Amino acid sequence: MNIYDIETVKLLLEKQPIISIIPHKNPDGDAIGSCLGLYLFLKQLDYDVEVVSANDFPDFLKWLPSAKDILIYDNTPEAAKERLEKSGLIFTLDFNALKRADSLAPLLEASGATFVMIDHHQAPDNYARVTISDPKASSTCAMVYRLIEAMGKESLINKDIATCLYTGLMTDTGNFKYPTTTSNTLRIGAALIDKGAENSLINSNTFDTWSYNKSQLLSIALRNMVYLPQYHTAYITLTGEELQAHNHQKGDTEGFVNYGLMIKDAQLAIIFIEEGDFVKMSLRSKGDVDVNQIARAHFNGGGHINAAGGRYDGTVEEAVAYFREVLPTLFN
Fold it and tell me: Which of 63, 95, 135, 329 is the most exposed place for a label (fewest CB within 10 A)?
């Protein structure tokens, strides 16, 4: 984050534009936390600002301050379209290619607004006037905190803003477990706690909210797990029928993929989740196994070195067959 980017953002805000903030499709804790944190910060400064999401987000994030204010395109497409059409400044948070906004992508591509990207994924597209990109950052929430700090507005971070940013910081670092957790990450977490974020409450509200159906779905996922010791790889499959049988809700499979990495010596874990005529994939790894490259090369996705997502057009069986076909080449 350089001085020029900070000064440009400040100049753009001085124009008092109508502002929209956009997360990626299927927003997670970091996407929702960073969007709401920035939204509440800009509301403190009396801007006309809204968060617009392509689709809904998991119930375990709906307790966050002002989560009810998020405009969901899937629910009210005309209102979301009208909002984007009149926006003069658009922040895109936690993604770096407009296609990741899914149904909002055509509206964003057609917009005459000025764009500011804040993101920590690799290889950003070149669509924004200001691109604040740091693949080494632990989370987009950490980057939003640093932006507010660099603007000299840290005193405006209240309990609600701190709660939103801490939630994303916590979820995107796996409760401060992943390699992206640095001393700087912990300092930001401490600063947010000093601003009012309640660690224990945030943890409980986010993680201790499982339904019985989700617990049963996890048992199915673990039963379906396959481990390939010669490749130090575990994979999990969940079919549409299995999801339906357990009344699957958005966010229910969050974190399931990590169970594969709990196996001793496992270096790569993937979950294949059937969604209609395609398969959604989450990839996780340890060490220098680069799942971002795997997702980009084979599964129309991307992300970070140790955490990425992708998709396969076809059935779960076809996705697994293709994965097992290319797997030997990944470890050569």
Answer: 329
